[in-house]
Amino acid sequence: MSFDLPQLARAIVTASLPSMESIGWGILATGKIAHAFARDLALTPGAHLAAVGSRRLSSAQAFAEEYGAAAAHGSYEDLVADPAVDVVYIATPHALHLDNARLAFEAGKHVLCEKPLTLATADAEEMVRLAGVHDRFLMEAMWTACHPVVRALRERLRAGEFGTPRHLHAELGFRVDAPPEDRMLNPELGASALLDMGIYPLTIAHLLLGPAQQLTAAGDLSDRGIDLDIAVVGRYAGGALATMTASMTSYSSRACEIATDQGRIRFDDFHHPTEAVFTPHAPGPGSWVVEPGEPVVVVGEEPIIGQGYGNEIAEVGRCLRESLRESPLVPHDQTLTLLRQMDELRAQVGVTFPG
Ligand SMILES: NC(=O)c1ccc[n+]([C@@H]2O[C@H](COP(=O)([O-])OP(=O)(O)OC[C@H]3O[C@@H](n4cnc5c(N)ncnc54)[C@H](OP(=O)(O)O)[C@@H]3O)[C@@H](O)[C@H]2O)c1
């Protein structure tokens, strides 16, 4: 029997929601991630693209035509003022997130804001404060935390099914070939391997091992003072250790491996894996020989919607239907904890942002 996955996703998510009107999304900015998000939005039940806003009307119009948005706006102000928009998805460079979120809250909209929420914790605290003042929903778009495979792995690991984690290794990187003014390299826009990619290894370690007790970093900086490569060592509850890297100069494996006292878990594309595999190990006949046992494949209870952004979109929809102001999967406290960690690591490697 074969399944149409988007259809299956729609059926499962719709069945778990009270019947309500579809949630109207407004996408703020038309860059790379906005396109990926719009593709998954089209696959997500109970959600539709109501409008898109760009600094240039022509860009908004092209985007609206490509993804079937009802309205295209030539400014972010016009987007947030659109009554058909219930929730705004902020997809601008990190340095602009706080101003964009303020605009949305003041217009009475809920917000899903790309990661990292802001460059530094103080700005993120301000964003959380504004969400509270305006009584609006706010979630960082940390799709990994909403991902069905990551959620299932977290639950089963916490239940002790795979033994006690002792060491986690995660790496994320790719070569950035971009002009110096691009957000990936421009310090004015918050360029940083740690903020762009390193946030994922830190998040997976936080989700699977708990809050870090100690973090130490080494970095390699560009001549403009941004971290192009960073390696972090962390200590977690019970003495579990993590090694994590992020790179803008090399193609890292994008894999995560967790060694436990019972075996080894591996998952590729760890920030949006299709599955995780636990291989139990037992002592073999010789002193250094280990016998691998039957692998256990971990998949999520819910289907992955699109690339996985659909699961984060569905989570926002669930929260809005339940009148929540934050998601239990990406609580404000978790976002702020990760930002505090990154403030500290940035200071250790000597990166500061203009202003
Ligand atoms: N969740 C994920 O998997 C993921 C992946 C990639 C990126 N991200 C996050 O998403 C955000 C955007 O990343 P991106 O790769 O989509 O960036 P991008 O391709 O450079 O797009 C950013 C967009 O922001 C708008 N913008 C407004 N002011 C700008 C300015 N001064 N300079 C440049 N752009 C400006 C532009 O849209 P308009 O011209 O239409 O206004 C631009 O297209 C970042 O915070 C990043 O960390 C998340």
Structural commentary:
The structure is a single chain. By secondary structure, the chain is α/β, with parallel strands linked by helices. It folds into 2 domains: 5-144, 3-Layer(aba) Sandwich (Rossmann fold); 148-303 and 335-349, Dihydrodipicolinate Reductase, domain 2 (2-Layer Sandwich), CATH 3.30.360.10. 35% of the residues lie in helices and 24% in strands. The chain is built from 11 helices and 15 strands. The protein has helices at residues 5-15, 32-41, 57-67, 76-80, 97-106, 121-133, 143-146, 148-158, 193-209, 309-321, 332-349; strands spanning 23-28, 47-53, 71-73, 87-90, 110-113, 138-140, 165-173, 214-221, 227-235, 241-247, 256-260, 263-267, 276-283, 290-292, 296-298. The strands form 2 sheets. Strands 7, 8, 9, 10, 11, 12, 13, 14 and 15 form a 9-stranded mixed sheet that branches. Helix 6 runs antiparallel to helix 11. The chain is globular. It starts with a helix and ends in a 6-residue tail after the last helix. Residues 1-19 have low confidence and may be disordered. Bound molecules: NADP nicotinamide-adenine-dinucleotide phosphate.
Write the layout of secondary structure elements.
Elements: H1 5-15, E1 23-28, H2 32-41, E2 47-53, H3 57-67, E3 71-73, H4 76-80, E4 87-90, H5 97-106, E5 110-113, H6 121-133, E6 138-140, H7 143-146, H8 148-158, E7 165-173, H9 193-209, E8 214-221, E9 227-235, E10 241-247, E11 256-260, E12 263-267, E13 276-283, E14 290-292, E15 296-298, H10 309-321, H11 332-349
Parallel strand pairs: 1-2, 1-4, 2-3, 4-5, 5-6, 7-10
Antiparallel strand pairs: 7-11, 8-9, 9-10, 11-12, 12-13, 13-14, 13-15
